[in-house]
Amino acid sequence: MAEAASQDLLLAAAFVSDAQYNRNIPFKTSPEAVRLYYLYNHWIMRTATYFFIFLNLSLAVFEEPAVYPLPFLVTSVVEVLCLVVFFGRLTHFAKVTLRNVFWKDTKNICIMVAILLSLTDLAIYGVLRMYDVRSIRWSRIVRPIFLINFAESRQIRRAFRSIRNTLPEITYVFLLFMFSLLMFSLMALKLFGERNLQTAEGLPYFKNYLEIVFDLYVLVTTANSPDVMMPAFDFSSWYALFFIAFVIVNTYIFMSLFLAVVYNNYKKHLKNEIRKLAYMKHCKMIEAFNILKEEEGAQFVVREAQWKQLVKLVAPDISNSHRELLLRISDDEQKGFIDKKSFVQLADLLNIQVITLKIRSHPLGQWMPGVYKSAVSRFLRSMVRHRGFVWTYDVIILINAIFIALDEETPYISYAEWVFLALYIIEILLKVYTYEPRAFFGKNQFWNWFDTLIIFAALTATILNTTLKSTTKYNSQQILDIVFILRVLRLIRIVDSIQRFRVIMNTLINIVPTMLTFGGLTLVVYCVFAIIGMELFHGKIQFFPANSNAPHSLECGNAALKDSLFARAKYCKNNFNNFASSFIVLMELTVVNQWHVFANGFANVTVQPAKLYFIAFHIVMVIIIVNIFVSFILEAFFVEYSLEKSEVETAIEQKIQELGMGVQEDELQDEHLLDNMESAEHDLEGEGGTKPQSKGLVFKIASKRYRTVDSLLQRMFEAEIPLEDEGPSVEEFLNLFPTAAIPSNVTSESAA
Hints:
Keywords: Membrane, Transmembrane, Transmembrane helix. By secondary structure, the protein is mainly α. It has helices spanning 2-21, 31-40, 43-58, 72-96, 99-104, 106-130, 144-149, 154-192, 209-220, 230-235, 240-292, 304-314, 320-330, 340-344, 346-350, 363-367, 369-372, 375-385, 387-405, 411-434, 437-440, 446-469, 477-489, 493-497, 499-537, 565-568, 579-591, 595-605, 611-645, 651-658, 665-670, 709-718, 730-736; strands at 294-296, 299-303, 337-339, 354-360, 676-679, 697-701. Strands 1-2-3 form a 3-stranded antiparallel sheet. It is globular, with a radius of gyration of 32 Å.
C-alpha cells in the first residue's frame, strides 16, 4: 500500500513538473517508465545532450577546411561518439513512450535519418580518402537537425513553426514585391539601357536585365544607395524621381508590409501555441490532482501531508519557509487540505522566485557596539543611506567620463585616475560599513558585485601597468587596453542610479533568456549557409599580408577580382575558407551594408548565378528571421515593461503582506531596510506549526514578472479558461492537434 502511494506521488510529481516547465513529452505511467522519465529529464542528461550537440556542430572548425586542423581519425571518432550519444538519448526516449507514439513522432524519424546519413557519409568519405579521392562531406549540413529535433529544443521548434505558419502570408507580399521589382527593372532598362551610361568602375550601366534586377534588389536594402543612382542622376536630375519612387514603394512600403505581416502572424500563431500549452498544463495538473485526491465532504481534496511531499519532489531546492508560504497560499483558511482550484495553481506558484530573507545586524555592531552605535557612526551611516550620497557619486562618474576622454599622457590626467579609483574604493568601503556585508554581496545584488569587481580589477591592472612601466623599457599595450576597458565599464554604473534606466535594463535582462531561442534559430541558419558557402567558395579568395609579393595578392589571389570593388576595398579576409570566416561573412551579410560587394566578388570568382546564394541568405535571415526576431522583441518588451509598471500584486505578495513578513522592492533598492538580510533556510511554522515566526524572517519576490515571455503570455491566456472548463479530453485535444497524437493510456502530453 505504501509502495503504491509512493508510486502515485512520483507520477503526480512528474505531471506537476511537466506543467511547471511546459514540457510536451508523452510518457508511460508505469513505475519503471516514470523513473526512466525522471532520469531523462535530469539536468545532467539534458546538459550532456546539449554538450554533444554543440560538440558535433563545432567539428566543422576542425574538419577540412579547418580553422584548427585535426587528423581525420580524431574528428571521425568524436563524430561517431556524438552519434552514439544521440542514438542512446533516442533509445532512452523510446523506453518512456509507447512504440506507436515513438514512430509517429517526426522528430524521432528526423534524428534517426540524420544519424544514418552521417554514418554513411563518414564511411564513404573515409574510404575515398584512403584512395586520395577528394569528396564532399555533404552530411555536415544535417547536423543542425540534432539541435532542432531533440525534445529539449522545443522553443527552437516553436520558432520554426512560427516561420512555417507565417510563410503563406509572407509569400503573397513577397510575390507582389517581386512583381514591383521586375516592373521597375523593366522601366530602368528602357530608360537607361540605350543611353550608353557607365558606372564609376567604367562598366555598362543598366544594360543587362538580370543585373538590373539584382542592383535594384540591393537598392531595396539601401546597401548601394546612392551609388546605383549616380550615373543616371549625373545624366539628368529628373531621373532621381525614378529612384525616389522606387525606394518609397519597395523599401518603405513593402519592407514595412513584411514587418507588419510577420508581426501580426507571429502574435496570432504564438497565441494559438500558448493557448494549446495552457490547456495541456491544465490537463496535467488535473491528472496530478486526480491521482492524489481524497474525498472530503462533498468535494475532493489533496491532504496537506501529501501536498508537502509533492512539492519536495517537484522543487527540492526551495527552502522550508518558502514551501510553508506556498502552503499558506494554497490552503488560505488552514483547513489541512488543498482544494482543486488551489492545487491547479501550484505550477504557476513554483514559477515565481521567492527569496527567503533573515534579518541580521552588522557584525561590527556585535564586535564593537560602542564604536558602531556612536553618534559619529550613526551620522556616517545615515549619510551613506541618503540619496545625496548616490547623486554625489553620479556626478563623480560623469566627471570621470570626461577625464577618460582626455589625453592620458598629460600628468594631471594620469594622477586624476588615482583620485577616482580612491573615491570609488572609499564608496565601497562606506557601503560595506553601513550595510551588512553578506547582504551587500548577496547573490541577487548584481550591481554591487559589478561595481566591486570592476573597481578592484581596474585598481589591480593600473598598479600592474604603473609598476611595469616604472621598471625598464616595458610598454604592454594589452594591459593598457584592459585598463581602458575597465575604466569605461565603470560608467555603466550610472544606469543603476536612474530609476527609468534601471526599469528598462531590468526588462531587457529579463527577456534575454527568451532571446536565446532566436540565438539557436540563427545558429541553425548560419551553420547551414556556412557549410554550403564553404563548399561553393572555398579557396576562391585568399588573404595575403600587406607586404606580400605573392601573385595577385592585391586581387585576393584571384585575377578575376582585378579592379573590382571587392579587391579595392581590401575585403580579402572575408571569405569562406573555413567555418569561422564563414560565420563572420554571414554576420556581415546580416548587417546588410555592402552585401552586394560580397555577392559580386564571389560571383566574379565563380559564376554569376552564385548571387542567388546571397539573395537566399538575405531573404531567409534578414527578411524573415530578423523580422520575426523584431516582432518577438517588441512583444516581449511590451509585456515585460507593462508588467514592470503594473501595481497589481500577485497572490504570493498578498500573502506575504498578510503575514506581515514582506519587504517592498523599493526598500531593497534604496537599502533602507532595518539592518540587512541574507538568504536563509528557516521554517515558517512556529510551535505547533500554526503561527509564523515573523521575528527575523521576511520574504520578497525576486521579480514581479514571470521568467519567460511565454510564461507571461500563457498566464494571460489561461485567464480565458474557466476552472470548470478543464479543456477537452486527451482524445479530443489530440484530434485538435494531430501532431500530438498519443494513445489514451499515456499522459496528456503532446509530442509537438
